[in-house]
Amino acid sequence: MTGRAILALVLAAVMAPTVGCAQGAFQGPGQRIFSRVDSNGDGVIDRQEVLDRRGELFDRMDSDRDDNVTREEAESAKRGFRKRLTGSTQSPFDMADTDGDGMVTREEFLAAPQPIFDQADSNQDGQLTPDEFSSFMTQLRESR
User: Is 37 inside any structural domain?
Assistant: First the structure.
């Protein structure tokens, strides 16, 4: 699985509670994320608020503060995000390619570690409850 695929899954997991809280159905970390992006507190996220958040993301990636993000700065930010999320800087592909042949078989793919799930499953029972998911989202938010 590529880094983009992992990121898409993570964003989907993050956006699901955000959408829910926009409809008033979700409380907890998703609500806090929504509220933080909704900087004027009007209950909706407009394009300017998204641009403001993107600007903050750019500033975090621009480690030398020269108003340019190099490939290395972007990769470093991605590694940092991956480390906060999974506890490892190893790419999802490398984690799955257990025999190191440069290919991931179906068996390797299905057997690959699931560090995000494992981290969120705080009691290690193989199931994520809403409380575990909410707690995990809080941990992610606080680890920034």
Answer: yes
Domain membership of residue 60 as a residue range: 3-121+131-142
Residue 26 lies in a domain: yes
pLDDT tens, residue by residue, 95-129: 889 999 999 999 998 888 888 888 889 999 988 88
pTM of the model: 0.52
Question: Residue by residue, what is the 3-state secondary structure of the chain?
Answer: CCHHHHHHHHHHHHHHHHHHHHCCCCCCHHHHHHHHHCCCCCCCCCHHHHHHHHHHHHHHHCCCCCCCCCHHHHHHHHHHHHHHHHCCCCCHHHHHCCCCCCCCCHHHHHHCCCHHHHHHCCCCCCCCCHHHHHHHHHHHHHCC
